[in-house]
Amino acid sequence: MNKIILAVLGQDRPGIVAAVTGILFKQNCNIENVSQTILQTEFAGIFIVSMPQNGSLEILQTVLNTKLTPMGLHAHIEPVTTKPAAAMPPISTEPFVITTKGPDRKGLVAGISAVIARHGVNITNLQAVFKGGDDPGANIMIYEVDVPIDIDRQALHQDLREKARSLALDISIQHRNIFKTINRI
Predict the structure, then answer these.
(1) Taking CA 126 as the corner, what is the angle to CA 130 and CA 42, rounded to the nearest 5 degrees?
(2) Is the pLDDT of residue 85 over 70?
(3) Are 67 and 109 in the same domain?
(4) What whole-number distance in Å separates Cα of residue 160 and Cα of residue 167?
(5) What is the span of the domain harbouring residue 159?
(6) What pTM did the predictor assign?
């Protein structure tokens, strides 16, 4: 099986997931991973898909365009290329959740993510909701991150707090297990 990544974008409406997955099923493809969300009024879906050995990217793209364009959707596919594993051993990490709240302004995500990257921390999931204005509770960002075990966590936390202060943000940094326990519904 050949793997592809499929991105589908367009104005949200009922039936998008059913349409995309129905097309993939009829093309004898298997969905391995999917992440889908609604951003304001826009649908965004990313699928990792296994195609049959005799499958054609061009044919799949044509079928997707034929079926999805009338729905106002755009589909883009690319092959997933598996690169040989690096000679370095995998890095041990621990999962953390960084939450920020504060007045809306340009550069919030850029500022916090730059600190995260500078410390070699990987963002595995990011949810940001900006409703605008100065109401601190109306603008929330939640970063799920993998923090390498061997980094200076105190320095990471200090740098994040300093950046948050400079951006007028309240910040919380918690191990994912603690975050899940505290925020359990």
Answers:
(1) 60
(2) no
(3) no
(4) 11
(5) 93-182
(6) 0.75
